[in-house]
Design brief:
Distance between the termini of chain A: 40 Å
Number of domains of chain A: 2
Number of strands of chain A: 17
CATH topology of the largest domain in chain A: pyruvate-formate lyase- activating enzyme
Oligomer: heterodimer
Radius of gyration of chain B: 27 Å
Distance between the termini of chain B: 58 Å
Largest interface: A-B, 46 and 24 residues
Largest sheet of chain A: 9 strands, mixed
Structural class of chain A: alpha/beta
Strand content of chain B: 25-35%
Helix content of chain B: 25-40%
CATH architecture of the largest domain in chain B: 3-Layer(aba) Sandwich
Structural class of chain B: alpha+beta
Radius of gyration of chain A: 21 Å
Strand content of chain A: 15-25%
CATH topology of the largest domain in chain B: Rossmann fold
Helix content of chain A: 40-55%
CATH architecture of the largest domain in chain A: Alpha-Beta Horseshoe
Largest sheet of chain B: 6 strands, mixed
Number of helices of chain A: 15
Number of strands of chain B: 33
CATH superfamily of the largest domain in chain B: P-loop containing nucleotide triphosphate hydrolases
Shape of chain A: globular
CATH superfamily of the largest domain in chain A: tm_1862 like domain
Shape of chain B: globular
CATH class of the largest domain in chain A: Alpha Beta
Strand order of the largest sheet of chain B: 2-3-1-4-5-6
């Protein structure tokens, strides 16, 4: 499949009766848990559990995609590629079988060490046309600090494998702001990354999630995180170098060559509907948000018993709350928020909804209001939460 | 003319922690004033706060009966606070007694309050019964303590009794010595004169006066007159403390007890006033004691504007029982409506704040405390300023005077250098030093009260590793080059941070305050200037840099709810901070400034 190119328009998506939806499939398995990860995952050592998972997922996806038009698919985790080739093939077959037509984009997350030529080929054959690889860094010390099992060579091999399988749209994740990260190391990472010429790049500051092993290490002062200032400088450097390399920033953490923005994630930032399948997966449809139990056994049991998971949590937002939330999420996009679009989707004018804060933030040079479009200034990117806090 | 040969009125004078309350407990046991099952540590300290902090805050009178040589004696003990902040209470107790036990911890020796109290009691012609306490402890050094008593207070060693209030050793001998040595009360006239030495507020009975009957007698039904106000009231009940209030038919000359009338609040009942009979008034009041004046003032504001009424009710309640607390309404541009309160000292202030929080659950912000200044204006007018907010413009002031104290410090000889340095830093002067024994010195001098109340006591203890004690007395006013130090946050004067400082210290204090605030105020989306100014001159400045990182890197489908809730929570947290112009200042900043954190 060839990646979609050409001008992209923001999908108009917050129609509660719209049938269009993005599908997210959560694969809760990992070979080993990374010390900074707070997502739900379990070690892949019980093959019967994996079989049950695939069985339950088949039921859930079939049920969840009924009467919906799935525009994009995103298989994330955990580590989808941690599954053995047969299971991975089965998983992709399950998804493929539930779709009425080919999605516009189908992404699968992968770890460099678990994506080989065979897996890449079977993913491509199933219809996957975009692979997101968790490279994190090319620096051996950095990878050790992050508890990653792969080396820079694995990342290169994985990218090669995608290309050989015919998947051009490869995204690499880069991490910064972790213990030991530096501007020098970022320059090296960028050089290494450019050499691989991925179509898309996501950059993430390491965030210390409460309860993770990393959090405990920080609490015990075993490791020291770079300060806010160096975080900010690293982010600025990444932005500058990526821009020089032709990557356009289209969201706070995401960069792409023209035509390679991630459509699936765009839906999240545009108030679109999404259906999540698998343990802990979140959904948003018909103005309602809910999520599955973040526990493989509980999720499996309820799906296998009743065909659909027991809902762990759901909420129906008031129209104002929903509008504020959309404003905050949509402002993550570099293009900002179109006033007419926002009014159509929410019924609110953001100037009135957030008066006088919008004006004040503009005066502080953190927002620009160009009449029909509100957006964060570049200066506000790295303090965007402080801006969002005023608007929420 | 002795009216009641079987009565003895006495108090116990001791430095804090020298075992006064424990000794009082032993007396109560010995005289069977309390059943053993009702005994708990430090019986007379009945406020939770008193027991917890091991200090006596209010005077606690108690009447005991004890048979000695076939005569039944009525012993009225008035337990007094030992902390330097409450020395006025000691003065009140002394005025109600004929004798005093001077109790000295044999492990600590003579301390500053021992000397201060002994001098005060001597000047009021009280008979002193000296005693060493804690002689059961292995580190007790009675010989050294006796020598100190002899050298400093001219008390002969053979007059000093040895006791252990903890074990009870020597306590009965001490009680007998009180009976033998302390003179019985005497009366000068027939007309009623009752000295009010304390008051408490009781929900059912209104304001209850604690009285020492000097002359005459008082009983229920009698019409009385308060000599300072000329107001008349009807007596409803009189009684003694055993130690609980116990009704009596009548209180006579020499008695110590309580009096209930139709007086509604403690504010009407001025401590030190004389009660007399309305029909047959005394020609003169009893010479009481100087009215207690608040030494320092601070403003109290509720954190939430809506809590103002709750705060007002809470303060009114406290005032019913604490006539030393002076309260006026106050308004701050920064903090809204609140109260300007006068306190006797830092401990008094701390206790009031603690009680507001603990007993009334009000969350408050307090401004930096300051003393009362006397200003001579260029217009020739003289004004009293107890609030930096009312400090006049510089050009209107001719001379500023501030209260000065005479202090005396007992401290280890080895720390003299450190102590002198501290005193100088606090704008004090040392007048003389006296040798007490090979290890210790008595250091006398003067110092501005404002310097003494901030953190002098704590720092004195720290430079002498805990081996120093302090007492002081306000002696008058002296001219001083004082200025108002304003704090500006992002160009806005935060009136709650204003303070009066000596010109020579303005720059340094300003720097310290700016630094403290820089560490406490959260970073904003813009750089914030924190400045200290005297008049229009900026004397110190810190810049709080703009926020550099406040971002959620990843935000996908799964995180949106969590993210929104986090932002909403943080927004709510920010709303709870007071906004000063565009900058929110957390409560912690006010607390730090009040505590004087980082001050020079």
């Amino acid at each position: 499949m060839t990646p979609h190119r050409g001008p992209q328009t923001a999908p108009t998506a917050l129609w509660d009766d719209c049938r269009d939806a993005a599908l997210y499939v959560h694969v809760p398995f990992c070979t080993r848990k990374c010390p900074y990860c707070a997502f739900y995952s379990i070690p892949l050592d019980d093959t019967s559990l994996c079989r049950k998972y695939l069985e339950a997922l088949d039921m859930e996806i079939a049920q969840a995609t009924r009467c919906r038009c799935i525009r994009t698919v995103y298989v994330g985790g955990g580590t989808p590629t941690a599954l053995d080739a047969a299971s991975l093939e089965l998983l992709m077959g399950t998804i493929r079988g539930a779709l009425q037509e080919s999605p516009e984009e189908w992404t699968c997350e992968a770890n460099p060490e678990s994506l080989d030529g065979d897996k890449a080929a079977l993913l491509a054959a199933a219809g996957v046309d975009r692979i997101s690889i968790g490279a994190q860094t090319f620096d051996p010390d950095g990878l050790r600090t992050l508890g990653r099992r792969h080396g820079a060579a694995d990342t290169r091999r994985a990218v090669e494998a995608c290309r050989r399988a015919g998947i051009e749209n490869v995204s690499l994740d880069l991490m910064y702001g972790y213990p030991g990260s530096s501007l020098r190391r970022i320059e090296q990472d960028i050089r290494n990354l450019m050499a691989l010429a991925p179509a898309h790049v996501s950059v993430y500051a390491l965030s210390v999630e409460p309860g993770t092993p990393l959090d405990r290490m920080v609490q015990r002062r075993e490791i020291e995180l770079p300060g806010d200032e160096s975080h900010a400088l690293q982010y600025e450097l990444l932005r500058r170098r990526l821009a020089e390399g032709g990557y356009r920033q289209y969201e706070l953490s995401n960069f792409a060559l023209p035509g390679y923005r991630c459509r699936h994630n765009w839906t999240y930032w545009s108030g679109g509907q999404y259906i999540g399948c698998g343990p802990g997966a979140h959904s948003f449809s018909g103005g309602k948000r809910w999520w599955n139990p973040p526990d493989l056994v509980r999720w499996c049991t309820s799906v296998l018993e009743s065909g659909r998971p027991q809902i762990e949590f759901d909420e129906h937002l008031s129209s104002e709350k929903r509008a504020r939330e959309l404003l905050v999420v949509a402002l993550r996009r570099s293009e900002g928020v179109n006033r007419g679009w926002f009014r159509t989707l929410t019924g609110f004018d953001y100037r009135q909804l957030c008066a006088p804060v919008v004006r004040q933030l503009c005066d502080l040079g953190l927002l620009t209001d160009q009449g029909d479009r509100l957006r964060l200034t570049e200066k506000a990117y790295f303090v965007s939460d402080a801006v969002f806090r005023e608007l929420i | 003319m002795s009216s009641s040969p079987q009565i003895r009125n006495f108090c116990i004078l001791a430095h804090i922690d020298h075992g006064k309350s424990t000794l009082a407990d032993r007396f109560l046991e010995l005289t069977h004033a309390v059943a053993p099952r009702n005994l708990k540590e430090q019986l007379l300290d009945d406020m939770d706060l008193e027991r917890e902090r091991g200090i006596t805050i209010k005077a606690h009178p108690v009447t005991m009966f004890y048979e000695h040589r076939d005569t039944l004696y009525q012993l009225n003990l008035i337990d007094t606070p030992g902390h330097v902040d409450f020395s006025y209470e000691v003065a009140r107790s002394i005025a109600a007694c004929e004798g005093a036990i001077l109790l000295v911890d044999a492990t600590q020796g003579v301390e500053a309050q021992t000397v201060a109290h002994a001098h005060l009691a001597g000047s009021k012609h009280l008979t002193i019964v000296p005693a060493l306490n804690k002689i059961d402890l292995p580190n007790a050094d009675p010989e050294r303590t006796l020598k100190q008593l002899e050298d400093i207070l001219a008390i002969p060693s053979d007059e000093v009794l040895w006791v252990s209030a903890k074990t009870g050793q020597g306590v009965e001998v001490l009680l007998r010595r009180v009976i033998e040595k302390v003179p019985p009360p005497y009366t000068e006239q027939d007309e009623l004169r009752a000295l009010i030495f304390d008051s408490v507020y009781d929900d059912f009975r209104g304001a209850v006066a604690y009285v020492r009957i000097k002359d005459g007698e008082v009983r229920p039904g009698q019409e009385i007159l308060l000599m300072s106000t000329g107001k008349r009231y009807l007596v409803k009940e009189v009684g003694r403390f055993r130690p609980q209030a116990s009704k009596a038919d009548c209180l006579r000359s020499g008695d110590v007890g309580y009096l209930v009338s139709n007086i509604k609040s403690c504010a009407e009942l001025r401590i030190g006033d004389t009660i007399t009979d309305a029909a047959r008034p005394s020609p003169r009041p009893f010479p009481g004691f100087p009215e207690m004046k608040p030494m320092l003032f601070a403003s109290i504001y509720p954190i939430e504007g809506g809590d103002y009424e709750r705060l007002r009710t809470a303060i009114e309640k406290l005032r019913l029982n604490d006539s030393a607390l002076v309260v006026q309404p106050a308004t701050s541009t920064a903090l809204g409506h609140g109260f300007r309160c006068g306190f006797l000292g830092m401990l008094h202030l701390e206790i009031v704040l603690e009680r507001l929080r603990r007993e009334h659950g009000v969350i408050i912000i307090t401004t930096r405390p300051n003393v009362v200044y006397r200003l001579h204006l260029t217009s020739g007018e003289e004004i009293i300023v107890d609030n930096p907010a009312y400090w006049p413009e510089v050009h209107l002031i001719r001379v500023v005077e501030e209260p000065i104290v005479d202090f005396f410090i007992m401290g280890p000889r080895t720390c003299l250098g450190e102590i002198i340095k501290l005193v100088r830093e606090k704008r004090g002067r040392i007048r003389e030093t006296e040798t007490i024994d090979p290890e210790r010195l008595l250091i006398k001098g003067t110092m501005p009260l404002s310097e003494l109340i901030t953190d002098f006591h704590d720092r004195l203890k720290s430079v002498s590793r805990g081996y120093s004690s302090l007492d002081y007395e306000v002696t008058g006013y002296e001219p001083s080059d004082l200025v108002r130090l304003d704090i500006l946050v992002h160009g806005e004067v935060v009136d709650a941070f204003a303070s009066i400082v000596h010109r020579s210290q303005a720059r340094e204090q300003g720097r310290a305050l700016c630094r403290t605030l820089k560490q406490t105020i959260p970073r904003q989306l813009f750089p914030v200037a924190i400045q200290a100014a005297v008049g229009r001159t900026i004397v110190a400045r810190e810049t709080l840099p703009a926020l550099r990182k406040d971002v959620t890197a990843k935000c996908y489908g799964g995180d949106i709810t969590r993210k929104r809730k986090l932002l909403e929570r943080q927004k709510a947290g920010k709303k709870r901070m007071r906004m000063f112009g565009k900058v929110p200042i957390p409560q912690e900043a006010f607390l730090k400034v009040l505590r004087g954190d980082g001050q020079v």
